[in-house]
Design goal:
The complex is a heterodimer.
Chain A (H helix, E strand, L loop, with lengths): L3 E10 L8 E11 L4 H14 L21 E3 L2 E2 L21 E6 L7 E3 L2 E2 L2 H10 L19 H11 L6 H5 L6 H12 L2 H4 L2 H14 L10 H5 L7 H16 L1
Parallel strand pairs in A: 1-5
Antiparallel strand pairs in A: 1-2, 3-4, 3-5, 6-7
Helix pairs in contact in A: 2-7, 3-5, 5-7, 5-9, 7-9
Chain B lengths: L15 H8 L5 H4 L3 E5 L3 H13 L2 E5 L17 E2 L11 H11 L6 H21 L24 E2 L5 H19 L2 E4 L2 E9 L2 E9 L5 E5 L2 E4 L20 H8 L4 E2 L4 E7 L22 E5 L2 H8 L13 E2 L1 H5 L9 H13 L11 E4 L1 H7 L1 H19 L8 E10 L2 E2 L12 E3 L17 H21 L13 H20 L5 H15 L6 H21 L11 H25 L23 H4 L1 E6 L8 E6 L14
Parallel strand pairs in B: 1-2, 1-9, 2-5, 9-17
Antiparallel strand pairs in B: 3-4, 6-7, 7-8, 10-16, 10-18, 11-15, 12-13, 12-14, 14-15, 18-19
Helix pairs in contact in B: 3-6, 3-13, 4-5, 5-13, 11-12, 15-16, 15-17, 16-17
The chains are: A alpha+beta, B alpha+beta.
Bound molecules: flavin-adenine dinucleotide, iron/sulfur cluster (SF4) and FE2/S2 (inorganic) cluster (FES).
Flavin-adenine dinucleotide (FAD) binds next to helix 3, helix 6, strand 6, helix 7 and strand 15 of chain B.
Chain lengths: ~250, ~650
C-alpha cells in the first residue's frame, strides 16, 4: 500500500547569524508519503551525514503540533501547504512525485537566523516577561472554585491561550508584526477575573516591549490569522486594541 | 550506615508533612539573596521550582536545552491533572488519592512521599487557577472534572486536550515574571554536561552553550535537576525528540543512585509505526477507550488478508471479531489499566492476529458508540483527536476503525531521592519525572503533571531551605577552583573523543539499533534469557558506537549531531541499567512484566517477600557492573494485595 515519491529540495543553509546564506539543492528518492515532513528532513540529514557533510539544522521537539518549536517556511508558506497544522504535522502526501520543495527559515528582523533553518525567537519571551502573567506568588491564593467564571469566558480564554508561540504570524506578516501573538496572551488573561485586574497595565507593557524589539506595525492585512496553525482569531487583536486604548486613557 | 536513608519524618502518615514543615529550618530573607540555586530543566517541575524559589528571594539560575522554557516536553500532556478536591462530591479524599496512587503503582512506591503528593494536590489547582490557567468549566461557572483509569472517582482537571500546555504556560509565565524582576537568570539553548562536586557536595555545573559550543562554569549552593524522563532510550516513544537522560546520567556517574530503572510505562493507545523512517510515536488519549472497542480478527486468514490490503476491517463480520479485552477481562473490559491493555495487544499480534501493513496494530472501533450516541456526540468528545489521527494516518476514524499499538510513554524510575527530594549527594535535588519518587512500578493517568508541580511549587521550596539553612556562611565560589577546572576538562575530553572517532555510522543508526534491542527484550514482556541477551547486545552497541560513530563538523558553533551523540552515549548507559534492573527483579509488577512470573491466566505476579524494595544502582566505573542497594518499602497504612481487574 505504501506510496513513495522522489523530490528535489532547495534548502537555505547559513552557518551563523553573521554569515551569508545560500540555497543548496538536494535530491531525495523513495520518500514514503506516510512520512511526516520532518521525517523527510531526517532522511536528508542521514544522507548528508553519510556523505560526511553537516546536516541541516532545524528546530523541532514535540513533533505533534504543540510545542511551537518547528518553524519552516515551505514553498512560500509558514508551516507549508496544509491548513491548520504545524510543520511537524505536515505529511509528504501533500507533495507530488518530482516536485521541488523550497525550505527557508522564518524571515523577520526580530527573529535573526542562528543557523540554517533555526531562528532566535527569544523576543517572544521578552514580551511575555514584560507583563504576560498574573502577578501572584506561589501559595496563599484562594480556593480554585472561589470565583465562578462563565463557561463562555473560560472557553474563549482557552481558545486564545492555545497560541503555541511558533511565530508563523510574524513570518507571514509583510510588516513583521507580532500583534496576533501579543493579543492572544492579552485576551487570554483579560477574559478571566484573575487576569482582569492587571489588564490595562499588561497590554501597555507588552505592546511597548513589542515595539522596542523591532516588530513591525499591524496594518490589518490578516495574513497572520490565515497562517496561524492554531486558528488564533483576529478578534484578539481587536480586544488588545480596546485594552490598549483604555490603558492610554487612564494615563 | 547504609548509603540510602529515606529520612522519612516521624509521626502518623497524615501528619508527617505538617510535622516536617513545623520543624524544618528556614533561611531568613536577607540570607536568601546570598544563596544561589541552579535549576536544570524548565518543564513543569523545573519552571515551577524556579519561579517559586525566585519569588522567595533566592538567586536562581535556570537552564534549558530548548530556545524557551515554554517548549519543554511537559507541553505535550493532553489528558489532565489529578487532585483530591472532591468538587463532584463523589467520595474523593486525600487518603483515597493516596491509596489509588499506591495501588496503581503496584505497591512499589514510598508511602510518605505519596501521601504528601495527595495532600498538596489541591493547592496546585488553586495556584493554577490564580495564575489564569483556563481549566474547563461547567455551565455554573465552577471547575469541571473527568475520570481517568485506575480510579472510581472524577478527580481529573483539564484544559481541553491541552492540559500540559496550559499548566506549563502558567509556570512559564510565573518564571518569566521572575526573570523580569531579576531573581532568575535564564540560560536557554544551554545543556548541563557535568555536575561539579566540592567536598562531597553538589556545588555547580558545567554547561554547554548549544549555539556557540562554549563550555561554561556555574556555581550554586544547591543544584536541582528537573530534566524529565528517559523514555527515548527506546528511540521511538511518545516523548519529545529532545527528551533525554543525560543529566540524570551525569548525576549517576557522580555517585547518585539510579532507582528502579526498569520501571517504564507503555501506553496502549498510540498510532502504530508506519515505517523505518518513523521518528516518534503519537499518543492517542487514553480517554478514547471510554467509547472505543478494541478488537482483532478471530481468524488468522482474515488478519493476513488485511495486512496484504486485500480486505478492509469493515468487511469483517461481527462474529469474526475478537474483542479480546472484553473477553479476557469482563469486569473492566476496554478500561483495564495501561500495562494490562498493552500486553494483551502484544499477545494478539505475536500470535499472528495483528493488523495494519506491519501486523503490529489492533483496532479501536467507535462503530457501536456512534450507533448508540450519534456521530455528533463522539465528535464533541474526541473531535480533535480524530482530526489528529486523520492528519497522520489519512483515514477517517468515523468510518474505519482506528489502528493503535502500545508505545513507551513514561519512566517511573529515576534518580533516587529521599523524602526531601535530595539524592544521596548532599545539595543535589531531583524533581519531576527525573526522580523515582511517587509512582512505584506504574503511574496512573494525570498523576505526572500533579507530581511535577507538587515537587516544584510545594515541596522543594520547603525542603531546600532545610538544606540551605546550614550553608548561609558558604561563600560564592569563583568557579576557578580546581574542582570546576577538572570537571570542565573532563567534559572537553569527552567531546573531543566523540569528534575524534570519525567513524562510518550516523548517531541515529545506533539509536535505532539500541531502540530495537530495548523494545524486543526490555519492553512489554521480559524474560531472563532475553535480558541477558540484551545486556550483551547493548555492550556491543556501546563498543561500536565509541569506535564507529560519525559526527561531521566540530565542537565550536552549533552541532546538532554532536548533541545527539553525547545524549545517545548516555542512553546506552541507561539501556544497560534498565536491562540489569529488569533481570534482577524476578517478579512482575506494574509496568515490569517478567514472563516467568505470571498467573495461569497471564496476569502479573508480584513477589512481595523478595522484592518489596526500591532497587538503587550505584555507579562503579565505566564498563564495571553497578552495585545494587535496597530501600525496603514498609507499608503502615495500606496492605499489599494482588491487583485484579477481572
Ligand atoms: C504525549 C504525552 C502525554 C502526556 N499526558 C499526560 C497527562 O495527561 N497527565 C499527566 O499527568 N502526565 C502526562 N504525561 C506525562 C507528563 O507530561 C510528564 O511526565 C511531565 O510533564 C514531565 O515533566 P518534567 O518537568 O519532569 O520534565 P520535562 O517536561 O520533560 O522537562 C524537562 C526539562 O529539562 C530540560 N533538560 C533536559 N535535559 C537537560 C540538560 N541536560 N540540560 C539542560 N536542560 C535539560 C528540558 O529542556 C526541559 O526544559 C504525558 C506525557 C506524554 C509524552
Ligand atoms: S498566534 Fe498563531 S502563528 Fe502566532 S505564535 Fe501563536 S500559534 Fe503561532
Ligand atoms: S515540533 Fe512541536 S509544534 Fe512542531
Amino acid at each position: 500500500m505504501e506510496n513513495t515519491i522522489n523530490i528535489t529540495l532547495k534548502v537555505w543553509r547559513q552557518n551563523g547569524p553573521k554569515e551569508k546564506g545560500r540555497f543548496e539543492t538536494y535530491k531525495l528518492a523513495n520518500v514514503s508519503t506516510d512520512s511526516s515532513f520532518l521525517e523527510m528532513l531526517d532522511m536528508i540529514n542521514e544522507q548528508l551525514v553519510n556523505e560526511n557533510k553537516e546536516p541541516v539544522a532545524f528546530d523541532h521537539d514535540c513533533r505533534e503540533g504543540i510545542c511551537g518549536m518547528c518553524s519552516l517556511y515551505i514553498n512560500g508558506r509558514p508551516h507549508g501547504p496544509d491548513d491548520d497544522v504545524t510543520t511537524c504535522q505536515l505529511h509528504m502526501r501533500k507533495f507530488k512525485d518530482g516536485q521541488t520543495i523550497t525550505i527557508e527559515p522564518w524571515r523577520s528582523a526580530a527573529f535573526p537566523v542562528i543557523k540554517d533553518l533555526i531562528v532566535d525567537r527569544r523576543a517572544f519571551d521578552k514580551i511575555i516577561a514584560a507583563g504576560g502573567y498574573v502577578s501572584v506568588n506561589t501559595g496563599g491564593v484562594p480556593d480554585a472554585n472561589a470565583i465562578a467564571i462563565p463557561k463562555v469566558d473560560a472557553d474563549e480564554a482557552m481558545d486564545s491561550a492555545s497560541c503555541i508561540g511558533c511565530g508563523a504570524c510574524v513570518a507571514a506578516c509583510k510588516n513583521g508584526s507580532a500583534m496576533l501573538f501579543v493579543s492572544a496572551k492579552v485576551s487570554h488573561l483579560a477574559l478571566l477575573p484573575q487576569g482582569r485586574v492587571e489588564g490595562a497595565r499588561r497590554a501597555k507593557a507588552m505592546v511597548a516591549k513589542m515595539d522596542e524589539l523591532g516588530f513591525g506595525n499591524c496594518t490589518n492585512t490578516g495574513a497572520c490569522e490565515v497562517e496561524c496553525p492554531k486558528n488564533i482569531s483576529l478578534s484578539n487583536i481587536a480586544r488588545l486594541n480596546r485594552e490598549f486604548l483604555s490603558a492610554k486613557l487612564q494615563d | 550506615m547504609s548509603k540510602i536513608n529515606a529520612r522519612i519524618p516521624e509521626g502518623p502518615l497524615a501528619q508527617k508533612w505538617t510535622n516536617y514543615k513545623d520543624h524544618q529550618k528556614l533561611v531568613n530573607p536577607s540570607n536568601k539573596r546570598k544563596l544561589d540555586v541552579i535549576i536544570v530543566g524548565t518543564g513543569l517541575a523545573g519552571a515551577s521550582a524556579a519561579a517559586s524559589l525566585g519569588e522567595m528571594g533566592f538567586n536562581v539560575k535556570s537552564f534549558t536545552i530548548q530556545d524557551s522554557p515554554r517548549r519543554a516536553h511537559s507541553i505535550a500532556a493532553q489528558g489532565g491533572i489529578n487532585a483530591a478536591k472532591n468538587y463532584p462530591n463523589d467520595g474523593d479524599s486525600v487518603f483515597r488519592l493516596f491509596y489509588d496512587t499506591i495501588k496503581g503503582g503496584d505497591y512499589r512506591a514510598r508511602e510518605a512521599n505519596v501521601h504528601r503528593l495527595a495532600e498538596v494536590s489541591n493547592d496546585i489547582i488553586d495556584q493554577c487557577v490564580a495564575q489564569g490557567v483556563p481549566f474547563a468549566r461547567e455551565y455554573g461557572g465552577l471547575l469541571d472534572n473527568r475520570s481517568f483509569g485506575g480510579a472510581q472517582v472524577s478527580r481529573t482537571f483539564y484544559a481541553k486536550g491541552q492540559t500540559g500546555q496550559q499548566l506549563l504556560l502558567g509556570a512559564y509565565q510565573a518564571l518569566m515574571r521572575q526573570v523580569n524582576l531579576g531573581t532568575v537568570k535564564l540560560h536557554t539553548r544551554t545543556e548541563l554536561v557535568e555536575i561539579v562536586i566540592v567536598d562531597g557536595k553538589a556545588r555547580g555545573i558545567i554547561s554547554r552553550d548549544l549555539v556557540t559550543g562554549e563550555l561554561q562554569r556555574h556555581f550554586g549552593h544547591a543544584v536541582i535537576l528537573a530534566t524529565g524522563g528517559y523514555g527515548n532510550t527506546f528511540f521511538l516513544s511518545t516523548n519529545a525528540m529532545g527528551s533525554n537522560g543525560s543529566a540524570v546520567i551525569k548525576a549517576y556517574e557522580k555517585g547518585a543512585m539510579f532507582a528502579n530503572p526498569c520501571y517504564a510505562q507503555i501506553h496502549p493507545t498510540c498510532i502504530p509505526v508506519h515505517g523505518e523512517n518513523q521518528s516518534k510515536l503519537t499518543l492517542m488519549s487514553e480517554s478514547l477507550r471510554n467509547d472505543g472497542r478494541i478488537w482483532v480478527p478471530k481468524k488468522k486468514e482474515d488478519a493476513e488478508a488485511i495486512r496484504l490490503g486485500k480486505m478492509k476491517p469493515t468487511q469483517i463480520a461481527e462474529d469474526d471479531r475478537d474483542y479480546y479485552l472484553e473477553r479476557r477481562y469482563p469486569a473492566f473490559g476496554n478500561l483495564v489499566p495501561r500495562d494490562v491493555a498493552s500486553r494483551a495487544a502484544k499477545e494478539r499480534c505475536d500470535a499472528g492476529y495483528g493488523v495494519g501493513a506491519t501486523g503490529l496494530a489492533v483496532y479501536l472501533d467507535f462503530k457501536s458508540s456512534i450507533e448508540r450516541l450519534g456521530q455528533k456526540t463522539i465528535e464533541a468528545r474526541y473531535g480533535n483527536l480524530f482530526q489528529m489521527y486523520n492528519k497522520i494516518v489519512d483515514e477517517n476514524p468515523y468510518e474505519t476503525p482506528m489502528m493503535i499499538y502500545p508505545a513507551i510513554h513514561y519512566t517511573m524510575g529515576g534518580i533516587w531521592v529521599d523524602y526531601e527530594l535530595q539524592t544521596n549527594i548532599p545539595g543535589l535535588f531531583v524533581a519531576g519525572e527525573a526522580n523515582f519518587s511517587d509512582h512505584g512500578a506504574n503511574r496512573l493517568g494525570a498523576s505526572a503533571l500533579m507530581q511535577g508541580l507538587a515537587d516544584g511549587y510545594f515541596v522543594l521550596p520547603y525542603t531546600i531551605q532545610n538544606y540551605l539553612a546550614d550553608h548561609i556562611a558558604v561563600k560564592r565560589m569563583t568557579t576557578n577552583e580546581p574542582e570546576f577546572a577538572e570537571a570542565e576538562n573532563a567534559v572537553k575530553a569527552r567531546f573531543e573523543k566523540l569528534m575524534s572517532i570519525k567513524g562510518k555510522r550516523s548517531v541515529d543508526s545506533f539509536h535505532k539499533e539500541l531502540g530495537l534491542v530495548m523494545w524486543d527484550f526490555v519492553g512489554m514482556a521480559r524474560n531472563k534469557a532475553g535480558l541477558q541477551n540484551a545486556i550483551e547486545k547493548i555492550a556491543a552497541i556501546k563498543k561500536e558506537f565509541w569506535t564507529n560513530v560519525r559526527i561531521p563538523g566540530n565542537t565550536t558553533g552549533m552541532n546538532i549531531e554532536l548533541e545527539k551523540a553525547s545524549r545517545l552515549a548516555d542512553f546506552i548507559v541507561i539501556g544497560d541499567l534498565m536491562a540489569r534492573d529488569a533481570l534482577n527483579r524476578e517478579e512482575s509488577c506494574g509496568g515490569h512484566f517478567r514472563e516467568e512470573y505470571q498467573t495461569p491466566e497471564g496476569e502479573a505476579l508480584r513477589q512481595d517477600d523478595k522484592f518489596a524494595y526500591v532497587g538503587c544502582w550505584e555507579y562503579k566505573g565505566n564498563d564495571v557492573e553497578p552495585e545494587l542497594h535496597k530501600e525496603e518499602l514498609v507499608y503502615e497504612s495500606v496492605s499489599m494485595v494482588q491487583r485484579n481487574y477481572k
